[in-house]
Batch of 3 targets.
Target 1
Amino acid sequence: MDFNTPASYAFALIAFSAALLSVISGAAVVIIYETGVVHKDMKCLKNLSRHQIIFLLLWLAFPSICLAVATCFLFVSLFTACFCSSNPIVIVIIALGCLVFFINGFLTLYVFKCVPHLDAKPAEGSARRDV
């Protein structure tokens, strides 16, 4: 692998920064969530607007999002270093890995597109259960 290209270093630096941000924000989420979640706090979720609930869920998912970004940038960093290599076997293996990566992305989008959307309203005649 040829790590002499500045692009692979830049992608690796971004990956490291995102991973570090994931660890720091994950610790903050655990500390804040652990101290603030009691039954009286959970009852106030009914009074929140849709945007506040979305932002709350994004805040809770932020460490996982940062880790996913870090993984993708590290993947791109290694791909960049391998594509700049002079070894043709490494280039072919990385090209096949990249092809499989993009096929996996398209299959994921296809599966999400095929999932049927269900109505939020209960069907008529069905018993509604409040928990």
Target 2
Amino acid sequence: MENRLTTSSLIVRPSTPRYPVIIKNPTCNEVISNFRLGDHFFALGLATAFTSGYYYSTYLHKPSTIAWGVFLFPTMYVLSGQRVQQRLRGVSENKKDCAKYGVEFTENITPYNL
């Protein structure tokens, strides 16, 4: 049996989100359905920029650029999905999502979440 006093911290920082929580634990379907046009542009824009940079830095080597793109495009969509999930959980600004779901938008400013 392990001793909790030696394995965990006694001081716990309260984690209150700065913005209203719309969905506490969003599922994949909820995250995908809340993608905005800007989230798609973010994913496609970064993936295109990185792939183009890789293409020109490898002196126009097409096979490795295709492999890089196959890896990078889904990765950027996962990153964009993380941004949507943070909005739904109230970690990042979610004024438009609050209006969509009918949740009152209030900003919670405490010393713990600045």
Target 3
Amino acid sequence: MKGAVVIALLVALAMIHFMAEPASAVKCEDVNNALDPCLSYLTGGGAPSSGCCNGVRILISMAPTTRDRQTACQCAKDAASRNSNPREDAAAALPSKCGVQTNIPISPNTDCSSIS
């Protein structure tokens, strides 16, 4: 009887563990810090600084899962909407100008829930 109770408890704990959705590891503060060196590029165009490109690489590395990418997207979208006059063409070109590939767009018009 005692063994059955222990097994039932372990099964219940395992079910709770696998049903619980893990919290996103990405925080908007981290996304903002990563993209902060890009502000002059995003508002003025030209070439992104090496600090900006490093920030883009950091952002990509912080978002390995779909949920992380969606969170990072929403953070970037919120930051873009708070800053005056972000250039959408500069934002769209940022990954290629930094020589990286990502599906985390930096735009106030992105549907972040569609990112996979």
